[in-house]
């Protein structure tokens, strides 16, 4: 006799910052539901467990990157990676979370059946000896909290002459534990958050660190400590102080973002004035920190306590804005003819984006083509029932949107139960102008834009980068708007197919 497949009410994919937060919300807001968290790796923490390069840290304050239900109590507002990892793991020690996590379990594919009102998940499970086997389980709702990056492969441009380089080439995503760069010449290729973190972190031990960027970039200095939040924690109970600090930082971050989008020339002037004041070198600012694009056309990099700029002023680090002609045995030759000598080259050229964690999806036998789909309320996909994606903000802390998404999922599941529905799926209601789901000009976004759902030109089909607007919708908005549900029926009655959604 064939053993029936295990069935769960909800499956969460990923045990990183988002997945642990989702597990908490499900366990507290849906206490009667069965659920599991599937984690492909053998540890909790996601990004914060995987990335081990020097100085790895958040570029968002911990009062907003942290969970609203677990106050951040450490001194630094901009925290290092090990502190964030410890915070996530401490949160996951809650038995309601820890006992639900299944490690070394990777989602390979998911098939939705409207007749059965459930997902059938194909899983790859790795044992203690490294062997793998395929297993299946079913669930009523699937919530993907695995982010949108490819954690197995970063973006690796083809560099001419790389094979001739006699030094060591390092990728931040796979940092060697035994890398010795003391008293060596280091070139960091890139100008994103990873490069801006690496330069000051390596500068104290290396002979010299050069950041090589193709074009100028914006970098803003922010305090490592938040004096307002420190004062709130001195005078208010921990929970209240956390909420006050969180609210202040949400408002400040959103105000600065709106300034950048609505008054870009003023924002440029403010950023440039700050950089000139710190560096005291107008020419360096003009050549390396005055981009042609507007602030927040690409994600804005931050330097806690101006550490990046201080490493430049000390002479331990420098910035060169040029393009690579070719690698040489002893370094990199630039298009200008200059050669940067290097013993170690770090390719901080960015991550690659990967939709749905690389898994494949079908609905009633029809493959799901994300590129032809639309994103609904920033977390569901048109025509796909009982599926949600956790995608954070690009202009603010990831957790702000991630937590709203988790709470929305809980509200939706309660709504389905209350109305007697087994499933619901978003449907579009007419032609829309399409825009990328992440409205940034950054290379990593543009390279992957066609593989992700589009956002439209009106609600609920836009990916708003605004917590103040998203919070009321996620917590109190109309759950039936632009949604179709199966008709309430006795358990034995067959549910209608969703074929019309794919027609």
- CATH T-level topology of the largest domain: FAD/NAD(P)-binding domain
Portion in beta strands = 15-25%
Low-confidence runs of at least 5 consecutive residues: 499-503
Q: Please count the helical segments.
A: 15
Q: Structural class, judged by helices and strands? A: alpha/beta
How many domains? The number is: 2
CATH class of the largest domain: Alpha Beta
What's the N-to-C terminus distance? 38 Å
Biggest β-sheet strands, sense, barrel: 9 strands, mixed
Rounded radius of gyration (Å): 24 Å
Q: Supply the CATH superfamily name of the largest domain.
A: FAD/NAD(P)-binding domain
Number of DSSP-assigned strands: 27
Outline: globular
> What is the mean pLDDT?
91
Return the CATH architecture of the largest domain.
Answer: 3-Layer(bba) Sandwich
Cofactor: FAD
Protein name: FAD-containing monooxygenase EthA
Keywords: FAD, Flavoprotein, Monooxygenase, NADP, Oxidoreductase
InterPro entries: FAD-binding_MO (IPR051820), FAD/NAD-bd_sf (IPR036188), Flavin_mOase-like (IPR020946)
């Amino acid at each position: 006799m064939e053993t029936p497949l295990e069935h769960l009410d909800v499956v969460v994919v990923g045990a990183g910052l988002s997945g642990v937060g989702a597990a908490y919300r499900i366990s507290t807001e849906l206490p009667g539901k069965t659920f599991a968290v599937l984690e492909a790796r053998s540890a909790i923490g996601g990004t914060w467990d995987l990335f081990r390069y020097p100085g790895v840290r958040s570029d968002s304050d911990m009062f907003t990157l942290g969970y609203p239900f677990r106050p951040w109590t450490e001194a630094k507002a901009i925290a290092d990676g090990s502190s964030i990892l410890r915070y996530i793991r401490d949160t996951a020690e809650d038995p309601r979370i820890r006992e639900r996590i299944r490690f070394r379990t990777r989602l390979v594919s998911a098939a939705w059946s409207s007749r059965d009102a459930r997902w059938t998940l194909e899983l790859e499970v790795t044992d203690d000896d490294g062997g793998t086997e395929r297993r299946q389980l079913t669930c009523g709702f699937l919530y993907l909290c695995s982010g949108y990056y490819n954690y197995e492969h970063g973006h690796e441009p083809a560099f001419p002459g790389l094979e001739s380089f006699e030094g060591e080439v390092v990728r931040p995503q796979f940092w060697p534990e035994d890398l010795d760069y003391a008293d060596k010449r280091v070139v960091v290729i890139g100008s994103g958050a990873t490069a801006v973190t690496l330069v000051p972190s390596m500068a104290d031990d290396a002979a010299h660190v050069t950041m090589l960027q193709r074009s100028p970039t914006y970098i803003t200095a922010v305090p490592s400590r938040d004096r307002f939040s420190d004062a709130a924690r001195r005078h208010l109970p921990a929970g209240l102080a956390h909420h006050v600090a969180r609210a202040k930082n949400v408002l400040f971050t959103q105000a600065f973002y709106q300034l950048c989008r609505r008054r870009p020339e003023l924002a440029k002037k403010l950023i440039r004035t700050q950089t000139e004041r710190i560096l005291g070198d107008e020419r360096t600012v003009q050549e390396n920190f005055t981009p042609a694009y507007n602030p927040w056309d690409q994600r804005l990099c931050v330097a806690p306590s101006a550490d990046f700029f201080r490493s430049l002023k000390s002479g331990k680090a420098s910035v060169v804005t040029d393009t690579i002609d070719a690698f040489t045995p002893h370094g990199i030759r630039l298009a200008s003819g200059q050669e940067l000598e290097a013993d170690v080259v770090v390719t901080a050229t960015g991550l690659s984006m990967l939709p749905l964690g690389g898994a494949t999806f079908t609905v009633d036998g029809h493959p799901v083509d994300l590129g032809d789909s639309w994103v609904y309320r920033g977390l569901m996909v048109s025509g796909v029932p009982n599926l949600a994606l956790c995608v954070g903000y690009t202009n603010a802390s990831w957790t702000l949107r991630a937590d709203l998404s988790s709470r929305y999922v809980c509200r939706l599941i309660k709504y389905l139960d209350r109305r007697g529905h087994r499933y619901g799926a978003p449907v579009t209601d007419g032609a829309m102008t399409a825009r990328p789901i992440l409205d940034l000009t950054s290379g990593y976004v543009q390279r992957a834009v066609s593989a992700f759902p589009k956002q439209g030109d009106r609600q609920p089909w836009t990916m708003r980068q605004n917590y103040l607007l998203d919070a009321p919708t996620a917590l109190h908005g109309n759950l039936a708007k632009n949604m179709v549900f199966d008709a309430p029926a006795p358990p034995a009655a067959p549910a209608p197919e969703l074929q019309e959604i794919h027609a």
